[in-house]
Amino acid sequence: xxxxxxxxxxxxxxxxxxxxxxxxxxxxxxxxxxxxxxxxxxxxxxxxxxxxxxxxxxxxxxxxxxxxxxxxxxxxxxxxxxxxxxxxxxxxxxxxxxxxxxxxxxxxxxxxxxxxxxxxxxxxxxxxxxxxxxxxxxxxxxxxxxxxxxxxxxxxxxxxxxxxxxxxxxxxxxxxxxxxxxxxxxxxxxxxxxxxxxxxxxxxxxxxxxxxxxxxxxxxxxxxxxxxxxxxxxxxxxxxxxxxxxxxxxxxxxxxxxxxxxxxxxxxxxxxxxxxxxxxxxxxxxxxxxxxxxxxxxxxxxxxxxxxxxxxxxxxxxxxxxxxxxxxxxxxxxxxxxxxxxxxxxxxxxxxxxxxxxxxxxxxxxxxxxxxxxxxxxxxxxxxxxxxxxxxxxxxxxxxxxxxx
Length: 405
Description:
Strand content: 15-25%
Structural class: alpha/beta
Helix content: 25-40%
CATH topology of the largest domain: Rossmann fold
CATH architecture of the largest domain: 3-Layer(aba) Sandwich
């Protein structure tokens, strides 16, 4: 079988990896411009395809047989070539979002749900929410309910982002702020790259339950695989999601200067095969001069600006290891870069064991005062604290144990 994903820009997609995990057929990217979609669907060079932005409604006129779910949802994301040459269309996004909603940890089970966006993904989300007992309200830029009159929906218990706002590579953007929704019980963003969009990072900061779209992506792929092959793989959804999340998340190391972050990072890189990036090395490469010289010419303010630029780019990567500079946590805007796609580990070492050579701020500083200021910031940024007083090998092993748990 020749299967794949139809869309316009697909470099961010995880679909080929997911379908390889389900196995049994080839799966490729089919990037097509709008004017070429019709010819692609008609040429017979595929057996089964998933459809993504912006073609979930575009393909409808080419479908000769439509599932009841796709009819109700008004959009299609899965196509299969029929024996007579016709095209069967289904919407597995409805199954995928329903699966995500039931397993998201979001406690809301009824009430008003705001659905951001009115595209092909939105209609599937709305259909699923209605089936689950919610009252969905679509928020769009120009509709009756839009971003200028959100105050009329302060009673919403759930917000679902079904727009591409905040999706890689446009990380850091959000369609709205969660302030002004006092009854909110949870937030779902169907974006899966980055793992934590700006919207989800705000939910996390507010202590709200939240979920990204990775589980939905895997669940809809499982249902698509069943349509392609006739074999159910629903019992593998959770396992595939866990494996994929582990593969795609970065490992970020933070901590005081000289705490051994880079050494631990090298050991992790050797053990996992992941590429190691050192933010200080990236800064030096970009600036073309050593860090002490950057401090001499531009001061700490100039260095921090360069550091934020480096972290913004590095934070968008997937499946890497990132060793950071000791002071990166002192700049609030860096926190989303560290957390949006990563598991963050605070590498902690006794102050008397910290290396100082080549570190402009800590070389002659009062490390006790520096630690007192930074420790709460490390704690706030980290998912886990790792002791590095015995050996870097022990620290790396502790991190691997957490990741493999």
